[in-house]
Predict the 3D structure of the following.
Amino acid sequence: MLESLITSQTRVKLLLKFFLNPESKSYLRELAEEFGESTNSVRLELNRLTQAGLLTLKDEGRTKVYQANPHHPLFPEIQSMVRKFTGIDQLIPQILAQLGEIHSAFVTGDYAQGIDSGIIDLVIVGKVDELYLKKLIDKVEQLIHRKIRFLVLSDEELEKLKSTLKIEQAIPLWEDKP
């Protein structure tokens, strides 16, 4: 869907990178290496997105660092499109709302870093029926054409694994607010 609207594959990759997780920051050479593309093609698209105000550019020493601009008027819409493209938006209503006692849920791994690898890493904190969860995930995988790996943790297990899971880079999907 996104590729039919945006003909530049590099631009699609950049939108995924920066709008899946708006906290994500990168510089030109890092992006070119990650995408397996020339620095010139990445630079061209970075310049276009920066000139449009969708990305911000900051100097960190001698390095220019790019990040999504959350203050742009189209930010929420672009982020929504990117999440729909990856299928993350369907995780919330189709899986989480039906599972039981969930304290929080978030996406980690490649998608949290803005990389469309085809595998969504989902962490659920709480008490759930894992067999039922697996059935729901199988259905969602067919709809979104991506694999979902899940990990169910207790609050205590989450505390122990916070640094390993890189929670600060995760995309929050659900939080039970008492």
Observations:
- The chain has nine helices and seven strands.
- The chain has two domains: 2-78, 87-175.
- The radius of gyration is 17 Å.
- The first strand starts at residue 25 and ends at 27.
